[in-house]
Amino acid sequence: MAIARDGFPVLVLAQDDATRDGVETLAAELAVAGAKVLIAGGTAPGAVSLPALPAHPLLQPILLAQSFYVMVEALARRRGFDPDRPPGLSKVTRTL
After folding, report:
1. In this structure, is residue 43 part of a structural domain?
2. Residue 94: exposed, middle, or buried by beta-carbon count in 10 A (0-12, 13-18, 19+)?
């Protein structure tokens, strides 16, 4: 909580189980503290909700994380970056 202010980015994954209410409350508190909160699988005042697919509880964490990757990929492209060709990285491993 100490660093979650002044636009600090926070990704919150809210599963559809007994933890959801507490996670949504935490996300709202982080937003009030000034963090830039993205929440997948739930809603909270002051947070940006990411789309998430309904799923079996065992699969839900994977799908919640996936919603983040879809958003990041779209954001990178809007900013003029190609996520498949990041600057400074190569997908080729050279061996000698």
Report:
1. yes
2. exposed
